[in-house]
Amino acid sequence: DMKVTQMPRYLIKRMGENVLLECGQDMSHETMYWYRQDPGLGLQLIYISYDVDSNSEGDIPKGYRVSRKKREHFSLILDSAKTNQTSVYFCASSSGQNSDYTFGSGTRLLVI
Amino acid sequence: GDQVEQSPSALSLHEGTGSALRCNFTTTMRAVQWFRKNSRGSLINLFYLASGTKENGRLKSAFDSKERYSTLHIRDAQLEDSGTYFCAADQGGRALIFGTGTTVSVSP
Q: Residue A33 to residues A88, A107, B31, B94: CA-CA distances in angstroms?
């Protein structure tokens, strides 16, 4: 069953704490993405990874970094969480251009 | 400006009725993908279109890259169709560009 798996599903962190969101895919897709979804804003792109150690900033990368050491895993890291990073985070993967995207189930992060 | 304009922002339907969601694009897009975010928060892939139309059950989507729009039609709406629907455009660039979503509420 081809899918994108995100962990955890729900997370509560205090301001200033480190946050690690993990994403895995079993389709050998080269490209992976991290988006955040906020009401009225759709999904906004945080980072793209084109393959292992080949990452690129998206539209709203500030306050985030990523890690891709294996093709099947793509992590989103918040080194010092802020309250405005409270959001729902979605990971996705695709096999490249002219192909559809597969999304994970999302991680709901609350920063207090 | 926004490259993907999705409308309406909210839609209320009675069971058995239908309606359409629309996304307009400010530039030529290579393809469009439609998703539904269900009550559990998961993004469900509905359609991926590079042109023409696709149909799946009570849902039908069309994409016209020349006219710069895509539609998603829901017919014979059921309660489980409730959720937030997103279109996302593939400009041939780095990643999908999302619309702001349409919250669909289906009532008995």
A: 14, 14, 18, 10
Q: Residue A38's pLDDT band (boundaries 50, 70, 90)?
A: confident
> How distant, in Å, are the alpha carbons of A79, A109, B71 from that of B31?
35, 31, 12
Beta carbons of B59 and B47 less than 8 angstroms apart: yes
Sequence-ordered list of residues with C-beta below 8 angstroms from that of A39, at least 6 positions apart, any chain: none
In angstroms, what separates the C-alpha of B77 from chain A's closest C-alpha? 23
User: Across the interface, do A40 and B41 touch by the CB < 8 Å criterion?
Assistant: no
| AA identity, residue A41 | L
Residue B81, helix vs strand vs coil: helix
Residue type, A108: R
Give the CB-side neighbour count of residue A4, counting CA atoms within 13 A.
30
Tokens standing for residue B55: 């149909």
C-beta neighbour count of B81 within 10 angstroms: 20
Question: What confidence tens digit (pLDDT) does each residue in A55-87 have?
Answer: 999 989 999 999 999 999 999 999 999 999 999
Determine phi and psi for A96, rounding to 5 degrees: 125, -160
d(CA B3, CA B25): 6
Interface test with A, best of B54, B94, B100, B102 (most A CBs within 10 A): B94
A38: nearest CA partner in chain B: B100
In sequence order, which ranges of B8-84 are alpha helices (DSSP H)?
A: none
